[in-house]
Amino acid sequence: TSQWAMRHGAHQGKTHGKHLRVHYHGHSLMRLSPARSADLPALHQLLLDLNIDVWSVRDGHVDVRAADAHALKAALHRYMPSVRARTLVADIETQLLAHHWRAMDTRVSAKSSVAAQLHDPKTWFSEYHDLDEIYEWYQLLAAAHKDRVTLTRNVGTTHEGREIMALRFTNPVSANANTTLPKKQIYVQGGIHAREWIGHATTQYIAYHLATSDDKKITSLLDEAEVVIVPVLNPDGYVYTWNGDRLWRKNRRADARGAFGVDLNRNYPTHWGEAGSSKFPYSDTYMGPSAGSEPEVQASMAVFNSLPRVVAALDLHAYSQLILRPVGWTRKDPTHEAQHAAVGAAMARIIKNVHGKDYISEKEIDLYPVSGGATDWWYEQSRPLKNLLGNKGVQVEEEEAMKKHKKPLPPGHGTIVRPYSYTIELRPSSEWWGPGFVLDKREIIPTGEEILPAFLYYARTAIENV
Ligand code: ARG
Ligand code: ZN
Protein backbone atom coordinates (compact mmCIF):
# COMPACT_ATOMS: atom_id res chain seq x y z
CA THR A 1 0.00 0.00 0.00
CA SER A 2 1.50 3.34 -1.00
CA GLN A 3 1.69 6.43 1.17
CA TRP A 4 -0.90 8.01 -1.01
CA ALA A 5 -3.36 5.23 -0.37
CA MET A 6 -2.69 5.27 3.36
CA ARG A 7 -3.29 8.99 3.63
CA HIS A 8 -6.50 8.74 1.72
CA GLY A 9 -7.83 5.72 3.51
CA ALA A 10 -7.80 3.42 0.53
CA HIS A 11 -8.06 -0.30 1.12
CA GLN A 12 -9.74 0.26 4.47
CA GLY A 13 -12.55 -2.21 4.07
CA LYS A 14 -13.89 -1.57 0.60
CA THR A 15 -17.62 -1.92 0.44
CA HIS A 16 -18.39 -0.74 -3.05
CA GLY A 17 -22.05 -0.92 -3.82
CA LYS A 18 -22.85 -2.68 -0.55
CA HIS A 19 -24.13 0.26 1.46
CA LEU A 20 -25.60 2.41 -1.23
CA ARG A 21 -28.09 4.89 0.09
CA VAL A 22 -30.01 5.27 -3.12
CA HIS A 23 -31.72 2.48 -5.03
CA TYR A 24 -33.68 2.39 -8.23
CA HIS A 25 -36.25 -0.34 -7.75
CA GLY A 26 -39.16 0.34 -10.04
CA HIS A 27 -37.36 3.09 -11.95
CA SER A 28 -37.42 2.54 -15.68
CA LEU A 29 -35.42 3.70 -18.68
CA MET A 30 -37.93 5.08 -21.16
CA ARG A 31 -37.57 6.14 -24.76
CA LEU A 32 -39.57 9.22 -25.73
CA SER A 33 -40.04 9.84 -29.45
CA PRO A 34 -41.78 12.95 -30.72
CA ALA A 35 -43.74 12.48 -33.94
CA ARG A 36 -41.62 15.15 -35.63
CA SER A 37 -38.00 15.90 -34.84
CA ALA A 38 -38.94 19.60 -34.80
CA ASP A 39 -40.67 18.87 -31.47
CA LEU A 40 -37.48 17.67 -29.77
CA PRO A 41 -36.53 21.05 -28.24
CA ALA A 42 -40.01 21.45 -26.75
CA LEU A 43 -39.84 17.92 -25.35
CA HIS A 44 -36.43 18.59 -23.86
CA GLN A 45 -37.68 21.79 -22.22
CA LEU A 46 -40.72 19.96 -20.84
CA LEU A 47 -38.49 17.28 -19.28
CA LEU A 48 -36.33 20.00 -17.73
CA ASP A 49 -39.46 21.62 -16.25
CA LEU A 50 -40.70 18.26 -14.96
CA ASN A 51 -37.28 17.69 -13.39
CA ILE A 52 -36.81 14.39 -15.23
CA ASP A 53 -33.31 12.87 -15.43
CA VAL A 54 -32.33 12.84 -19.12
CA TRP A 55 -29.83 10.11 -20.00
CA SER A 56 -29.40 10.39 -23.74
CA VAL A 57 -30.54 12.36 -26.77
CA ARG A 58 -29.84 10.70 -30.10
CA ASP A 59 -31.45 9.83 -33.43
CA GLY A 60 -34.58 11.86 -32.72
CA HIS A 61 -35.45 10.36 -29.34
CA VAL A 62 -34.81 11.16 -25.70
CA ASP A 63 -34.06 8.39 -23.20
CA VAL A 64 -34.92 9.22 -19.60
CA ARG A 65 -34.97 7.63 -16.18
CA ALA A 66 -38.52 7.64 -14.91
CA ALA A 67 -39.10 7.11 -11.19
CA ASP A 68 -42.78 6.71 -11.97
CA ALA A 69 -43.52 5.70 -15.54
CA HIS A 70 -47.27 6.19 -15.15
CA ALA A 71 -46.87 9.74 -13.90
CA LEU A 72 -44.49 10.57 -16.73
CA LYS A 73 -46.85 9.12 -19.33
CA ALA A 74 -49.74 11.09 -17.83
CA ALA A 75 -47.76 14.33 -17.98
CA LEU A 76 -46.74 13.66 -21.58
CA HIS A 77 -50.32 12.83 -22.49
CA ARG A 78 -51.38 16.14 -21.08
CA TYR A 79 -48.64 18.45 -22.42
CA MET A 80 -47.28 16.73 -25.54
CA PRO A 81 -49.72 14.00 -26.62
CA SER A 82 -47.84 13.35 -29.88
CA VAL A 83 -44.84 11.92 -28.00
CA ARG A 84 -44.60 8.14 -28.03
CA ALA A 85 -43.20 6.52 -24.86
CA ARG A 86 -41.68 3.05 -24.74
CA THR A 87 -40.02 1.18 -21.91
CA LEU A 88 -36.44 0.10 -22.66
CA VAL A 89 -35.49 -1.16 -19.21
CA ALA A 90 -38.36 -1.85 -16.84
CA ASP A 91 -36.33 -1.95 -13.63
CA ILE A 92 -32.99 -0.16 -13.51
CA GLU A 93 -32.05 -1.64 -10.13
CA THR A 94 -32.32 -5.30 -11.06
CA GLN A 95 -31.58 -5.08 -14.77
CA LEU A 96 -28.63 -2.68 -14.79
CA LEU A 97 -27.27 -2.03 -11.31
CA ALA A 98 -27.42 -5.41 -9.57
CA HIS A 99 -25.28 -7.08 -12.21
CA HIS A 100 -22.90 -4.12 -12.26
CA TRP A 101 -22.19 -4.25 -8.53
CA ARG A 102 -21.82 -8.02 -8.62
CA ALA A 103 -19.05 -7.55 -11.18
CA MET A 104 -17.28 -5.23 -8.69
CA ASP A 105 -16.85 -8.09 -6.22
CA THR A 106 -14.50 -9.93 -8.55
CA ARG A 107 -12.33 -6.95 -9.45
CA VAL A 108 -8.62 -7.69 -9.77
CA SER A 109 -7.99 -4.51 -7.78
CA ALA A 110 -9.53 -6.11 -4.73
CA LYS A 111 -6.51 -8.45 -4.65
CA SER A 112 -3.75 -6.78 -6.60
CA SER A 113 -2.13 -3.45 -5.71
CA VAL A 114 -2.21 -0.43 -7.99
CA ALA A 115 1.59 -0.54 -8.24
CA ALA A 116 1.45 -4.12 -9.52
CA GLN A 117 -0.96 -3.04 -12.24
CA LEU A 118 0.88 0.09 -13.35
CA HIS A 119 2.82 -1.74 -16.06
CA ASP A 120 -0.06 -4.06 -16.88
CA PRO A 121 -2.55 -1.92 -18.81
CA LYS A 122 -4.56 -4.95 -19.98
CA THR A 123 -5.44 -5.72 -16.38
CA TRP A 124 -5.79 -2.12 -15.23
CA PHE A 125 -8.13 -1.18 -18.07
CA SER A 126 -10.21 -4.33 -17.71
CA GLU A 127 -12.14 -2.80 -14.85
CA TYR A 128 -13.33 0.46 -13.32
CA HIS A 129 -11.39 2.00 -10.45
CA ASP A 130 -12.44 3.98 -7.42
CA LEU A 131 -11.03 7.43 -6.66
CA ASP A 132 -8.25 6.24 -4.35
CA GLU A 133 -7.04 3.78 -6.96
CA ILE A 134 -7.18 6.38 -9.73
CA TYR A 135 -5.30 9.00 -7.70
CA GLU A 136 -2.69 6.49 -6.60
CA TRP A 137 -2.29 5.30 -10.20
CA TYR A 138 -1.68 8.85 -11.49
CA GLN A 139 0.89 9.42 -8.72
CA LEU A 140 2.72 6.26 -9.68
CA LEU A 141 2.46 7.01 -13.41
CA ALA A 142 3.99 10.46 -12.91
CA ALA A 143 6.72 9.07 -10.67
CA ALA A 144 7.62 6.36 -13.19
CA HIS A 145 7.79 8.81 -16.11
CA LYS A 146 9.33 11.93 -14.58
CA ASP A 147 10.82 12.88 -17.94
CA ARG A 148 7.37 13.31 -19.50
CA VAL A 149 4.87 13.83 -16.70
CA THR A 150 4.47 16.48 -14.01
CA LEU A 151 1.68 16.09 -11.48
CA THR A 152 0.20 18.92 -9.42
CA ARG A 153 -1.77 17.48 -6.54
CA ASN A 154 -4.06 20.32 -5.64
CA VAL A 155 -5.25 22.72 -8.28
CA GLY A 156 -8.38 22.98 -6.18
CA THR A 157 -10.17 21.60 -3.13
CA THR A 158 -13.75 20.34 -3.26
CA HIS A 159 -16.63 20.99 -0.84
CA GLU A 160 -15.77 17.72 0.93
CA GLY A 161 -12.08 18.61 1.10
CA ARG A 162 -10.74 16.38 -1.66
CA GLU A 163 -7.88 17.47 -3.88
CA ILE A 164 -8.36 18.04 -7.59
CA MET A 165 -5.24 17.06 -9.52
CA ALA A 166 -3.72 18.09 -12.83
CA LEU A 167 -0.98 16.51 -14.97
CA ARG A 168 1.22 17.97 -17.65
CA PHE A 169 2.68 15.75 -20.38
CA THR A 170 5.50 16.94 -22.60
CA ASN A 171 8.96 15.94 -23.78
CA PRO A 172 11.98 17.91 -22.61
CA VAL A 173 13.01 20.46 -25.25
CA SER A 174 15.91 18.90 -27.14
CA ALA A 175 18.98 20.87 -28.18
CA ASN A 176 18.33 20.25 -31.87
CA ALA A 177 14.64 21.25 -31.78
CA ASN A 178 13.74 22.96 -35.06
CA THR A 179 11.86 25.78 -33.38
CA THR A 180 12.53 28.06 -30.45
CA LEU A 181 8.89 29.03 -29.96
CA PRO A 182 7.36 28.01 -26.66
CA LYS A 183 5.09 24.97 -26.96
CA LYS A 184 1.40 25.18 -27.70
CA GLN A 185 -0.93 23.62 -25.17
CA ILE A 186 -3.84 21.17 -25.23
CA TYR A 187 -6.28 20.92 -22.31
CA VAL A 188 -8.20 17.71 -21.52
CA GLN A 189 -10.74 17.25 -18.74
CA GLY A 190 -12.48 14.13 -17.44
CA GLY A 191 -15.00 13.26 -14.79
CA ILE A 192 -17.02 16.48 -14.60
CA HIS A 193 -20.13 14.28 -14.31
CA ALA A 194 -19.79 11.64 -11.61
CA ARG A 195 -21.78 8.74 -13.07
CA GLU A 196 -20.09 8.83 -16.49
CA TRP A 197 -17.42 6.32 -15.46
CA ILE A 198 -16.20 5.61 -18.97
CA GLY A 199 -15.09 9.26 -19.09
CA HIS A 200 -12.77 8.79 -16.10
CA ALA A 201 -11.46 5.55 -17.61
CA THR A 202 -10.88 6.96 -21.11
CA THR A 203 -9.01 9.93 -19.65
CA GLN A 204 -6.71 7.42 -17.93
CA TYR A 205 -6.29 5.56 -21.19
CA ILE A 206 -5.15 8.72 -22.98
CA ALA A 207 -2.86 9.68 -20.08
CA TYR A 208 -1.30 6.21 -19.99
CA HIS A 209 -0.37 6.34 -23.67
CA LEU A 210 0.95 9.88 -23.46
CA ALA A 211 3.20 8.82 -20.58
CA THR A 212 4.47 5.54 -21.99
CA SER A 213 4.12 5.27 -25.77
CA ASP A 214 6.95 5.40 -28.30
CA ASP A 215 4.52 5.80 -31.19
CA LYS A 216 5.78 8.59 -33.44
CA LYS A 217 2.41 10.37 -33.33
CA ILE A 218 2.68 10.66 -29.56
CA THR A 219 6.37 11.48 -29.24
CA SER A 220 6.16 14.16 -31.93
CA LEU A 221 3.08 15.66 -30.25
CA LEU A 222 4.96 15.84 -26.94
CA ASP A 223 8.00 17.31 -28.71
CA GLU A 224 5.89 20.14 -30.05
CA ALA A 225 3.19 20.62 -27.44
CA GLU A 226 2.15 20.23 -23.83
CA VAL A 227 -0.95 18.26 -22.90
CA VAL A 228 -2.52 19.30 -19.60
CA ILE A 229 -5.09 16.94 -18.09
CA VAL A 230 -7.46 17.35 -15.17
CA PRO A 231 -8.46 13.69 -14.91
CA VAL A 232 -11.18 13.76 -12.23
CA LEU A 233 -12.74 17.20 -12.02
CA ASN A 234 -15.53 16.06 -9.69
CA PRO A 235 -13.95 13.70 -7.14
CA ASP A 236 -16.69 14.16 -4.49
CA GLY A 237 -19.36 13.15 -6.97
CA TYR A 238 -17.29 10.20 -8.19
CA VAL A 239 -16.77 8.84 -4.66
CA TYR A 240 -20.51 9.16 -4.09
CA THR A 241 -21.24 7.02 -7.16
CA TRP A 242 -19.22 4.25 -5.48
CA ASN A 243 -20.73 4.46 -2.02
CA GLY A 244 -24.04 6.30 -2.20
CA ASP A 245 -25.74 6.59 -5.57
CA ARG A 246 -24.36 5.03 -8.77
CA LEU A 247 -26.40 7.45 -10.90
CA TRP A 248 -25.26 10.71 -9.24
CA ARG A 249 -24.23 13.39 -11.78
CA LYS A 250 -23.42 16.64 -9.90
CA ASN A 251 -20.85 17.70 -7.32
CA ARG A 252 -21.69 17.43 -3.59
CA ARG A 253 -22.42 21.02 -2.52
CA ALA A 254 -24.77 20.83 0.46
CA ASP A 255 -27.19 23.71 0.86
CA ALA A 256 -28.97 24.75 4.05
CA ARG A 257 -32.20 23.02 3.03
CA GLY A 258 -30.50 19.67 2.50
CA ALA A 259 -30.31 19.79 -1.28
CA PHE A 260 -27.12 18.44 -2.75
CA GLY A 261 -25.14 19.16 -5.82
CA VAL A 262 -24.52 21.63 -8.62
CA ASP A 263 -24.28 20.52 -12.24
CA LEU A 264 -20.71 21.69 -12.91
CA ASN A 265 -21.41 21.78 -16.63
CA ARG A 266 -24.01 24.51 -16.01
CA ASN A 267 -21.91 26.56 -13.59
CA TYR A 268 -19.21 28.14 -15.83
CA PRO A 269 -19.50 31.92 -16.17
CA THR A 270 -20.79 31.94 -19.74
CA HIS A 271 -24.42 32.87 -20.28
CA TRP A 272 -24.94 31.36 -16.85
CA GLY A 273 -28.56 30.75 -15.94
CA GLU A 274 -29.94 31.10 -19.44
CA ALA A 275 -31.63 28.28 -21.36
CA GLY A 276 -30.90 24.64 -20.57
CA SER A 277 -30.17 24.84 -16.87
CA SER A 278 -32.31 24.71 -13.75
CA LYS A 279 -32.67 27.12 -10.81
CA PHE A 280 -33.99 24.26 -8.70
CA PRO A 281 -31.32 22.83 -6.34
CA TYR A 282 -32.73 19.30 -6.56
CA SER A 283 -32.52 19.24 -10.36
CA ASP A 284 -29.81 17.23 -12.10
CA THR A 285 -29.00 20.35 -14.12
CA TYR A 286 -28.95 22.82 -11.21
CA MET A 287 -26.89 25.85 -12.25
CA GLY A 288 -25.66 26.65 -8.71
CA PRO A 289 -26.07 29.78 -6.57
CA SER A 290 -23.95 32.01 -8.84
CA ALA A 291 -21.81 31.85 -11.96
CA GLY A 292 -18.55 30.01 -11.26
CA SER A 293 -19.55 29.40 -7.64
CA GLU A 294 -18.17 25.87 -7.46
CA PRO A 295 -14.60 25.05 -6.40
CA GLU A 296 -14.34 22.41 -9.14
CA VAL A 297 -15.28 24.95 -11.83
CA GLN A 298 -12.87 27.46 -10.33
CA ALA A 299 -10.09 24.86 -10.45
CA SER A 300 -10.87 24.02 -14.06
CA MET A 301 -10.85 27.71 -14.99
CA ALA A 302 -7.62 28.36 -13.12
CA VAL A 303 -5.79 25.53 -14.89
CA PHE A 304 -7.13 26.67 -18.25
CA ASN A 305 -6.19 30.29 -17.54
CA SER A 306 -2.68 29.17 -16.65
CA LEU A 307 -2.20 28.10 -20.30
CA PRO A 308 -1.17 31.15 -22.33
CA ARG A 309 -0.81 29.14 -25.56
CA VAL A 310 -3.79 26.81 -25.39
CA VAL A 311 -5.03 25.81 -28.85
CA ALA A 312 -7.55 23.05 -28.06
CA ALA A 313 -9.69 21.75 -25.24
CA LEU A 314 -11.62 18.54 -24.80
CA ASP A 315 -14.21 17.45 -22.23
CA LEU A 316 -14.93 13.71 -21.95
CA HIS A 317 -18.49 12.69 -21.06
CA ALA A 318 -20.88 9.78 -21.52
CA TYR A 319 -22.98 8.69 -23.19
CA SER A 320 -24.60 8.66 -26.69
CA GLN A 321 -21.53 8.60 -28.97
CA LEU A 322 -21.51 12.25 -29.98
CA ILE A 323 -18.84 14.75 -30.98
CA LEU A 324 -20.15 18.14 -29.93
CA ARG A 325 -18.78 21.49 -31.07
CA PRO A 326 -19.54 25.03 -29.87
CA VAL A 327 -21.81 26.58 -29.02
CA GLY A 328 -24.65 25.51 -26.74
CA TRP A 329 -26.27 28.78 -25.73
CA THR A 330 -27.35 30.25 -29.08
CA ARG A 331 -28.45 28.93 -32.48
CA LYS A 332 -26.18 31.45 -34.19
CA ASP A 333 -23.08 29.82 -35.69
CA PRO A 334 -19.76 30.91 -34.21
CA THR A 335 -17.17 32.40 -36.60
CA HIS A 336 -15.27 29.13 -36.84
CA GLU A 337 -18.24 26.87 -37.57
CA ALA A 338 -16.87 25.57 -40.88
CA GLN A 339 -13.51 24.51 -39.37
CA HIS A 340 -15.23 23.10 -36.29
CA ALA A 341 -17.62 21.00 -38.36
CA ALA A 342 -14.77 19.62 -40.48
CA VAL A 343 -12.69 18.63 -37.45
CA GLY A 344 -15.70 16.98 -35.78
CA ALA A 345 -16.50 14.98 -38.91
CA ALA A 346 -12.87 13.87 -39.21
CA MET A 347 -12.83 12.66 -35.60
CA ALA A 348 -16.01 10.66 -36.24
CA ARG A 349 -14.40 9.00 -39.29
CA ILE A 350 -11.27 8.11 -37.33
CA ILE A 351 -13.34 6.58 -34.53
CA LYS A 352 -15.45 4.55 -36.96
CA ASN A 353 -12.33 3.14 -38.59
CA VAL A 354 -11.22 1.53 -35.33
CA HIS A 355 -14.20 -0.59 -34.19
CA GLY A 356 -16.97 0.54 -36.54
CA LYS A 357 -18.81 2.64 -33.96
CA ASP A 358 -20.99 5.52 -35.17
CA TYR A 359 -20.36 8.80 -33.38
CA ILE A 360 -22.51 11.69 -34.57
CA SER A 361 -20.78 15.03 -35.10
CA GLU A 362 -23.08 17.96 -34.32
CA LYS A 363 -23.29 21.41 -32.80
CA GLU A 364 -24.06 21.48 -29.06
CA ILE A 365 -27.26 23.49 -29.45
CA ASP A 366 -28.57 21.01 -32.01
CA LEU A 367 -28.47 18.42 -29.24
CA TYR A 368 -30.11 20.70 -26.68
CA PRO A 369 -29.37 24.15 -25.26
CA VAL A 370 -26.89 24.45 -22.42
CA SER A 371 -25.65 27.60 -20.74
CA GLY A 372 -22.75 27.71 -18.31
CA GLY A 373 -21.06 24.79 -20.09
CA ALA A 374 -17.31 24.15 -20.00
CA THR A 375 -16.73 23.92 -23.74
CA ASP A 376 -18.48 27.21 -24.47
CA TRP A 377 -16.40 28.95 -21.82
CA TRP A 378 -13.16 27.51 -23.22
CA TYR A 379 -14.03 28.62 -26.72
CA GLU A 380 -14.57 32.17 -25.45
CA GLN A 381 -11.12 32.35 -23.84
CA SER A 382 -9.14 33.96 -26.63
CA ARG A 383 -5.37 34.37 -26.52
CA PRO A 384 -3.24 37.07 -28.15
CA LEU A 385 -1.58 35.63 -31.23
CA LYS A 386 1.77 36.96 -30.05
CA ASN A 387 1.64 34.41 -27.20
CA LEU A 388 1.83 31.71 -29.86
CA LEU A 389 3.95 33.29 -32.59
CA GLY A 390 5.83 36.07 -30.88
CA ASN A 391 5.60 39.71 -32.05
CA LYS A 392 7.47 38.83 -35.27
CA GLY A 393 4.82 36.32 -36.29
CA VAL A 394 2.03 38.79 -35.65
CA GLN A 395 3.84 41.37 -37.78
CA VAL A 396 4.06 38.85 -40.64
CA GLU A 397 0.34 38.08 -40.37
CA GLU A 398 -0.49 41.78 -40.39
CA GLU A 399 1.66 42.43 -43.43
CA GLU A 400 -0.07 39.60 -45.26
CA ALA A 401 -3.49 40.95 -44.33
CA MET A 402 -2.38 44.39 -45.59
CA LYS A 403 -1.36 42.87 -48.94
CA LYS A 404 -4.60 40.91 -49.25
CA HIS A 405 -7.13 43.48 -48.06
CA LYS A 406 -5.18 46.65 -48.87
CA LYS A 407 -5.86 47.95 -45.38
CA PRO A 408 -4.64 47.17 -41.87
CA LEU A 409 -6.60 44.80 -39.66
CA PRO A 410 -8.95 46.46 -37.19
CA PRO A 411 -7.43 46.55 -33.70
CA GLY A 412 -7.62 43.22 -31.93
CA HIS A 413 -8.71 41.50 -35.11
CA GLY A 414 -6.55 38.75 -36.56
CA THR A 415 -4.29 39.16 -33.57
CA ILE A 416 -6.31 36.96 -31.24
CA VAL A 417 -6.93 33.25 -31.47
CA ARG A 418 -9.55 30.97 -29.99
CA PRO A 419 -8.95 27.40 -28.96
CA TYR A 420 -10.85 24.55 -30.55
CA SER A 421 -13.28 23.18 -27.96
CA TYR A 422 -15.19 19.88 -28.03
CA THR A 423 -17.26 17.63 -25.85
CA ILE A 424 -17.15 13.94 -26.68
CA GLU A 425 -19.98 11.77 -25.41
CA LEU A 426 -18.43 8.31 -25.25
CA ARG A 427 -19.98 4.82 -25.46
CA PRO A 428 -22.56 3.42 -25.43
CA SER A 429 -24.80 4.67 -28.22
CA SER A 430 -28.48 4.56 -27.18
CA GLU A 431 -29.25 0.87 -27.39
CA TRP A 432 -32.76 -0.49 -26.91
CA TRP A 433 -31.61 -2.57 -23.91
CA GLY A 434 -29.64 0.09 -22.04
CA PRO A 435 -27.04 0.03 -20.45
CA GLY A 436 -26.62 3.82 -20.38
CA PHE A 437 -24.10 4.94 -17.77
CA VAL A 438 -23.59 1.36 -16.60
CA LEU A 439 -21.30 0.41 -19.46
CA ASP A 440 -19.70 -3.03 -19.26
CA LYS A 441 -16.06 -2.90 -18.16
CA ARG A 442 -15.06 -4.92 -21.23
CA GLU A 443 -15.76 -1.77 -23.28
CA ILE A 444 -13.12 0.36 -21.53
CA ILE A 445 -10.26 -0.77 -23.77
CA PRO A 446 -12.16 -0.62 -27.10
CA THR A 447 -13.42 2.86 -26.16
CA GLY A 448 -9.86 3.95 -25.43
CA GLU A 449 -8.67 2.42 -28.68
CA GLU A 450 -11.12 4.46 -30.76
CA ILE A 451 -10.78 7.74 -28.83
CA LEU A 452 -6.97 7.91 -28.58
CA PRO A 453 -6.37 8.28 -32.37
CA ALA A 454 -9.21 10.81 -32.61
CA PHE A 455 -7.58 12.78 -29.80
CA LEU A 456 -4.15 12.64 -31.48
CA TYR A 457 -5.63 13.87 -34.75
CA TYR A 458 -7.41 16.66 -32.85
CA ALA A 459 -4.29 17.80 -31.02
CA ARG A 460 -2.22 17.70 -34.23
CA THR A 461 -4.81 19.69 -36.18
CA ALA A 462 -5.00 22.31 -33.45
CA ILE A 463 -1.25 22.84 -33.14
CA GLU A 464 -0.95 23.17 -36.91
CA ASN A 465 -3.95 25.43 -37.47
CA VAL A 466 -4.18 27.76 -34.50
N1 ARG B 1 -24.44 16.02 -22.00
C1 ARG B 1 -23.62 17.09 -21.51
C2 ARG B 1 -24.40 17.93 -20.54
O1 ARG B 1 -25.60 17.87 -20.49
C3 ARG B 1 -23.03 17.88 -22.62
C4 ARG B 1 -23.90 18.85 -23.29
C5 ARG B 1 -23.25 19.47 -24.48
N2 ARG B 1 -23.72 20.79 -24.74
C6 ARG B 1 -24.92 21.10 -25.27
N3 ARG B 1 -25.25 22.35 -25.45
N4 ARG B 1 -25.76 20.21 -25.65
O2 ARG B 1 -23.81 18.64 -19.78
ZN1 ZN C 1 -21.82 14.51 -18.89
UniProtKB/TrEMBL annotation:
Cofactor: Zn(2+)
Alphabetical list of InterPro entries matching this protein: CARBOXYPEPT_ZN_1 (IPR057246), Peptidase_M14 (IPR000834)
Claim: Protease is one of the keywords in the record: yes
A GO molecular function held by the record: zinc ion binding
Active-site residue list: E425 (proton donor/acceptor)
BP GO annotations: proteolysis
Ranges annotated as spanning the membrane: none
Stretches assigned to the Peptidase M14 domain: 127-462
Keywords: Carboxypeptidase, Hydrolase, Metal-binding, Metalloprotease, Protease, Signal, Zinc
Cellular compartments per GO CC: extracellular space
The family this protein is said to belong to: Belongs to the peptidase M14 family.
Protein's UniProt name: Peptidase M14 domain-containing protein
